[in-house]
Design brief:
Elements lengths: L4 E11 L2 H11 L3 E5 L3 E5 L9 E5 L4 E9 L2 H13 L5 E2 L11 E5 L5 E5 L22 E9 L2 H11 L3 E7 L5 E7 L7 E5 L4 E8 L3 H13 L6 E7 L6 E6 L5 E6 L12 E4 L15 H5 L2 E2 L26
Parallel strand pairs: 1-4, 5-8, 9-12, 10-17, 13-16
Antiparallel strand pairs: 1-5, 2-3, 3-4, 6-7, 7-8, 9-13, 10-11, 11-12, 13-18, 14-15, 15-16
The chain binds fe (ii) ion (FE2).
Fe (ii) ion (FE2) binds next to strand 9, strand 13 and strand 16.
């Protein structure tokens, strides 16, 4: 493999009302607003030294435009272009200048239908980590991962691991050893990209890293005080899988955001993927209330990188069911 993917680095999502989204993401959750124009809001976490990790784009309908990975060198973009082209995947260079703060970007629909993006350069900005005087809401630190529902987790896992060089930290398997969900990483934490068996392709959530559990609790108070208590969908609680302390929120357009803290290092080559049984109740919820039906059934649609149209979804290859302990 002659390219080196570093980490998940940004998500570009359509929203229907930028002011309404700004009130939620900036005023309530505490994202830093790097830049805004008529159609875009560019947001970052306090730890991030680059222009943005979340782009909200004004649109008539919500939908996910891209989930982006940063690569080590500019030339790796060309190598990725050739790699995807040779596989008949129709990669596409984005027009330069239509996006702020970012260099050359390459987009492609992955084999599951997810809109992937790659870039090497992003404009540097002031890192706000020690501007404690500006901390607000959840004190968002940085983007951590995306979690996607796909029809065929085993196929997605195989492509990301064998073709793109991801490694697996944890996975969920059925009684007959079919992979139900997989947590894959390039950066040395539990994941950059998780796949779950479900109606897909859809983005289930974007995870943002927080420094500590009290930031999650404090965010709940701030959300309630600002009239957003209804935005809390699940948690707070702790996952068995990944060990993260978590909270799931729904933004004003229904996109799901996870506040996430407390996972662990996965850098060692002899780290062995952790297997969880689908029916182990401690897998998804080590402690905390059971996930509501909406968490299992609802997710964000993704868009075609060429047409911008919503991609149709299909039922998963493994029969959809809730784990036994939930029913
Ligand atoms: Fe997550």
């Amino acid at each position: 493999m002659d390219f080196n993917i570093i980490r998940i680095a940004r998500v570009v999502m359509n929203v229907t009302d930028l002011d309404r989204s700004r009130a939620f993401y900036v005023d309530a959750l505490g994202f830093v607003e790097t830049e805004r124009d008529e159609d875009h809001l560019y947001l970052r976490g306090l730890e991030e030294h680059v222009h943005h990790s979340l782009v909200l784009k004004k649109s008539e309908k919500p939908g996910i435009q891209a989930m982006a990975y940063k690569v080590m060198e500019e030339q790796h973009l060309d190598q990725l272009y050739t790699f995807f082209k040779d596989k008949g995947m129709r990669p596409k260079w984005m027009d330069q200048g239509c996006q702020r703060g970012i260099g050359r970007t390459l987009r492609v629909q992955d084999p599951s239908g997810l809109p992937l993006e790659f870039f090497a350069e992003m404009e540097g900005v002031e890192r706000m980590l020690q501007r404690y005087d500006l901390y607000r809401g959840a004190r968002i630190q940085r983007i951590d991962h995306v979690n996607c529902m796909v029809q065929d987790v085993e196929a997605a896992q195989s492509f990301y691991m064998n073709e793109l060089g991801f490694r697996c930290s944890e996975y969920t398997a059925t009684e007959d050893d079919r992979v139900w969900a997989a947590w894959l990483h390039r950066k040395p934490t539990v994941h950059d990209h998780a796949f779950m068996n479900g109606v897909g392709p859809r983005l289930h959530h974007v995870g943002f890293s927080l420094s500590d559990p009290m930031s999650v609790i404090h965010c709940c108070d701030v959300l309630a005080a600002k009239g957003y208590a209804h935005a809390i969908e699940r948690g707070p609680g702790r996952h068995g899988l990944s060990n993260a302390f978590f909270l799931y929120l729904r933004d004003p357009d229904g996109n799901r955001i996870e506040l996430y803290t407390g996972d662990y290092l996965t850098s060692d080559p002899d780290f062995k993927p952790i297997r969880w049984d689908l029916n182990d109740p401690r897998r998804a919820t080590f402690w905390g209330h059971a996930a509501p039906d909406s968490w299992f059934n609802e997710a964000s649609v993704v868009l075609d990188v060429h047409t911008g149209e919503e991609l149709p979804t299909s039922e998963p290859v493994l029969q959809q069911r809730k784990p036994d302990f939930v029913t």
